What does this fold into?
Amino acid sequence: MENVTIRMLAERLQLSTATISKALSNSHEISEETKQRVLALATELNYVPNPYASSLRKKSSHTIAVVIPEVADSFFAEAINGIESVAQEKGYHVLIYLTHESFGKEQAILKDFQSGRVDGVLISVTTETAAAAHGLAQLVKEIPVVFFDRVCEEVTAARVTTDDANAAYNATAHLIAGGCRNIGLLSASRHLSISNRRAEGFRQALADHQLPLTDTSILYCSNEPAETRQLLKTALQQNHYDGLIATTEKLATAVYLACEELSLAIPGDVQVIGFSNLSTARFLQPSLTTVSQPAFDMGHAAATVLFKALKSSSFPLQEQQQVIPSSLIIRNSTKAL
Amino acid sequence: MENVTIRMLAERLQLSTATISKALSNSHEISEETKQRVLALATELNYVPNPYASSLRKKSSHTIAVVIPEVADSFFAEAINGIESVAQEKGYHVLIYLTHESFGKEQAILKDFQSGRVDGVLISVTTETAAAAHGLAQLVKEIPVVFFDRVCEEVTAARVTTDDANAAYNATAHLIAGGCRNIGLLSASRHLSISNRRAEGFRQALADHQLPLTDTSILYCSNEPAETRQLLKTALQQNHYDGLIATTEKLATAVYLACEELSLAIPGDVQVIGFSNLSTARFLQPSLTTVSQPAFDMGHAAATVLFKALKSSSFPLQEQQQVIPSSLIIRNSTKAL
DNA sequence: TTTATTTACTTAACCGATTAAGTAACACGG
DNA sequence: CCGTGTTACTTAATCGGTTAAGTAAATAAA
It folds into this structure.
């Protein structure tokens, strides 16, 4: 059995394809009676319109893209959840692209979007994404783009972020209140604006508490788990941190692993705070004090603002800047309070 | 600046659109010199072909769909990872659909696939998906479909699963070896074949060890976290289980939560095994004994077999049945060994 | 030399839906 | 009775590639 097309419906009903098309889109040009007949036959034959024919003609795909570094991270997983909930409600389709923290892959993916494959893009950039991200600046001019979490500050575009500097400041202050004097910030990237803002909050907190910022205070980690693990172990042995802030979920578990391997007690030897959305954080040994980002809400917010732009081209998308607060959830990997 | 089309290239080079099209696809009908000129202009003008025009004509979308219950679960997240790695390598695009365990949503999603939107489907069905899943049987006839993990046994189709019955048998035997005599199996669904196969392994293990199977041995949980939580607490208080097998990741954390609230010690009062891929399982308090599924590999295998079918229509996709073993990782939430 | 074949194109139909423009039939006001 | 609208359609162009079929020129084979 062939695929049912509008033309087949037209022939069966002795009508033109135009009439069928209009009837199915409930046009006022078509009589009620004809609409009924068309609809009846369409359901009888199980007609499903070809989305690509429609996309080609209407120049809109009813599809959005989500571009993220990885999916096996509870932040991104929950963010997708939030995005998908909005997309499903609006009847849009969601394409997923994983960059695996590779700027090259990211660029290739973004270039493809110039084809009109998607009506809009939600993106959280890679740790490698450089300041002069030319592809991004270009893309933003062509189709609606919303950055979430990992934004690119050099590009003027809609953004949904958390209060990174604040969060890092509070986390740092919390460690200091717990007695830490030699705190290390584990950063995922030198380029990432969220990393830099977190570092900024960290520095500010140290300064406000008259603690020195040394060149071992901020530790730049790798995307390679094995490398990061080695780096961490070496750093922990050499620098004798009494507090660590892991700015990504993967880094938080890496810290637990390294401490276990070095027989360092948490929080006895090192107090730990992780930027993480792990639902199991409270069941960890010890339970992990976290900076929890509202991942679902951020995805939801980013998608919502994107759809506003898709609905109305006059919507000032690029001016949209939402900051959704994250919260410090104090557990047993830190001592204060 | 308008979008660059093949026609624009044709006009600039005083060639027909056919020549451009063939040159870009490296057809033997076109001279090397012309190919060079076309390619040069294409890159100069940053030509990106319209995928929908091509899809419409070629009746292939270079897109696959992944249909899963949820994404905020490390099994599914890692499976997506595996799928995406194959798709990216093959230059395919990946559409994600979340059913949120709703059979209705699943059906609506599947129906859309009759439109030719995707060339193939990878699916893990919902807990509600009934035996007579008519939509599925239909879909399998129309386009290549591969079930992974949560298969639909009534439908003849390619499958990538783990050895569920074995895994459950081993988990049960492990608990029995640790002294458990009143084990509860927390199941996510009555319909799901993986649930039933796990239950089967569970029953067999009980039988082989002369332990009774009572009507409280298998506890069917809800998709609602709140409901499940209440159900669990009630059951734990009434039935005095000394061992629990949580057959999903969410259920595993629910058990930890319930035990905490009821002040039940793990493994002192209740020993716990979870079907889970949580990277933090080893850091939980106590560390969780898990049945770990090779999620990435399963996604990878499912995608690989799907692409074989997409490449060659004579490939006997429906006969493909892969069972990838899961492993019991013994930690401190159980006593044996 | 003539015919066959190859090379390097062009022409035009096509995929399936959408939509601007056109038309026939009928109603209605003046 | 004429002109103006309205209703309910149809015709045909269009979106941007792809491809079967055709062609003119060059080359090879007979």
